[in-house]
User: Fold these one by one.
Assistant:
Number 1:
Amino acid sequence: MRNILSFFTLILLSFSTFVSAQVVSSGGGTGDWNDPNSWIPAAVPTTASGTITILNGHSITVSDTRSADQITVSSGGSLTISSSGTFTVAAGSGDDLTINAGGILNIQSSGIIIIQNAVVPPPPRIALIRVAGTLNNAGTITNASSSTLIFESGSVYDHQYTSTAGTIPTASWDSNSTCQITGYTSNGSAPSGLGQSFGNFTWATASLANFIDLNGALTSVAGNLTFQDIPFFYIYLTSISNYNLNIGGNLVIDNCFMGLNSTATANIAIG
């Protein structure tokens, strides 16, 4: 009888541990990550919290320095790293930050996401961000690479820098993902990070008030390359010699001034 009771006690303890390892956002509106009332149970999540889920219709903001892993932003939910926030995606087990289709990750100007590169304890492991929804970026993503940041089919990366160029993070881009430039106003420089193999690529900067030369950096677009809503200033693809651009889908030019080259010969392969 004692052994049977001990067995059932072990099951209950294991069940209790499993339940307490699930943390979800609470309430229907907005909340700060560091507010216990933003979560169920009412405690600020850390790397020791287990699975963390931001629910549909809920918006959580990081406004200071935080670290966690096993985070899922559900469809209709959002996670925002504010201009005063630094968020470390810790290298735990499995995917460390998942943005589901319909979910949103916002990185505001001066906001920082650090993809942790864990060396101790062994074995070494690098955190992973998987995006099926939308990543709006006007801040900094540290340690991004094709193995740590993955954009899945249907996902969107929105480059929202305005007066500065910013960097498109190095990532793995599904052929049906989209990288789009939307924020530029007074900036006159191309973003860093154009030398990747993108899915779809869209440039739509209606408030642009400067000429921009991409300097031949954009060379591979598996889907459609679109330039739209740039009514007053030219976007030049290149000013270097022997520039080659491969487009797997269509080249779309809609309501904009766009030049293939400013001083050099450009070769564009479409289809």
Number 2:
Amino acid sequence: MKEYLISLFIDNELDMDEKITFVETVHDNRPFTDEALSLLRQEKRLRAELTVPVMVPAMPPLPEIVPSRSDFFTFWFRPLAGFAAAMLLVGLFSLLQPKPVLSPQEEQHRFVVYLPESNQARIVGTFTGWKPISMERVGTSGYWTLTLPVPKGEHRYSYLVEDGRQIADPTVVAREQDDFGGENSVIEVQVAV
């Protein structure tokens, strides 16, 4: 539970009361303080690794083109017309994209797991109908993440690693055995009103 609370603090996902509880716990519990500082330092290193600048080779200069009087209109207005058409298409495309709509009984939930040795990570659970959904790798940090709408209520889930292993979420304390000898994490989603 400590790791989960620290993770929420690092990701700025705590409300004001939870932040107060976190600060009080850090102040009163030295082992918790040490663990929180250790995880914060690790997160700082990971974020520093993700912000390494990428060097792009310079392009050679383009030759200067001077239009003739007859090509003046074509030279200046054709690129503007192309740009305007492209912007119109982008605008139309963004308007026509369906926006995900959460029902009043759903909440966006972010799942994060540290699997540096894995080339693939998926999540499976009651909120996915037990169908695996691929997670996204966070740079080269070893973390995998996915944000999903999760309905209100109690849910069971686990992560699937590329070699077929099923693992419970290490940041969630509540777990239970499944019918196949594996272990699932258990979360309770409370939808804010």
Number 3:
Amino acid sequence: MWLGLAGLSLIANLLAMPVISFVSAPSAALALLLTPFGMGDVGLRLFGYSLELVLAIAHWCVELAPAKLSTSSAMPGSSLALFALALALVTTARGAGRILLCLMAIVPAVWLWTASPQLMVHWSASGEVFVRAADNGMQRFGFAEGDGLAPLRYSALEVTACGELPCRLETPAGVIVLSEGGDCRAAPDAVLVLTLSDTTGDCPNTYRWTEVSKAGGLTARRVDSGLDVQVGTACRNRPWRQCQS
């Protein structure tokens, strides 16, 4: 389980919740009560104005946040559980010791988050490639023609022009090459080569769009030994649903 962190989402929710609680919800109730008397439009108009205000808050927070704001690694499920435990402890425990109990959950949660593998490359089913640049920000490249969806956490990123293929991209993990095909040995220093068509040469770090698109995408994370490349999505058994490949 991996969770993304949306930029300024907390501020957006704090600003929008009073509008929803004190304007949107009462307006919806007012519309329901007035509808039998033919005056439901009054409540619906107020309800519509409130939703426009909520959307304005959301757009304002999106514009205010840096375009490339993203965490270096997604939050693992273990960190989320520990953060939830810390919140439960600080709200239910009594005395000065509750702060210490809260920190005992927060410290390992932060450590697990920061120690988790750092996302370097994601080739989504949409055909777009998301690459972590040398400045630790994410870049979005339109590379292949796909029919899937791009990751929601990077949906606000503008598409960057890669230029003429092959395209060399510098990342904290090394050089990533986007290629149309041909001899994959033309980039011997590349830690990962993504190609649109078949290649010649024996290159174990080369992945083709035909294989990646069938699997639903490719994700490469930085680990101590180099890059951990996963083609497709991890399939885990659930009590209510067996894992299906």
Number 4:
Amino acid sequence: MRILLVEDNTELATMLADRFSAQGDAVDVEGDGAGADQLLAHSKFDIVILDVNLPNKDGYSILQSMRERKDSTPVLMLTARSEIDDRVTGLDSGADDYVVKPIEFRELAARCRALVRRRTGQAANVFRHGNFLFDRSAKRAFVDEIDLNLRNRDVQLLEAFLGNLDRVIAKEDVADKIYSFEETPSLNAVEQAVTRLRKKLEGSPIIIRTVRGLGYIANAREQ
């Protein structure tokens, strides 16, 4: 997942970013409300984890701006504000989930996966096709029950392609999905990452093809 974490508590933000990164997600952190609003106007994420009480612009206003721009990115509000009125305001403003701090990380990660699955029309954490199986929660893939030993970058790429089967994805969009702003990848690095994933998927029905001048397209062939 490519995650934007909008949280002004530096200690909490660092802890969550480290935990998400350790499980293979690309995470950007923004502690300023106005900065987050600008970032969301020009960049794409798989999910936004959004605090309410932020400097310069509160979470409700950020969410309202997103929905007014027709930005349908899933938003999980993570806040200490626990009153029913706060929850109703958040959900009615367009939040997809509303979670009160503190929360156990595994539950937060599971809620994020569920929201991303819902957006891509996938009902379960496990994707199975022929002799191929990918467990999103465990970040593991198997061909003929043999573990492919995916690296974090492999997992990010595989999630991106499985979420966009039969659709062309530009190289630039692939880079946006798997690299955070702190990283400075080249398109050559994207090509190398895709080549490595292709090799690991050999013998599976998941085929990633290069569409010259456009990017990549992944298909799940019949077996």
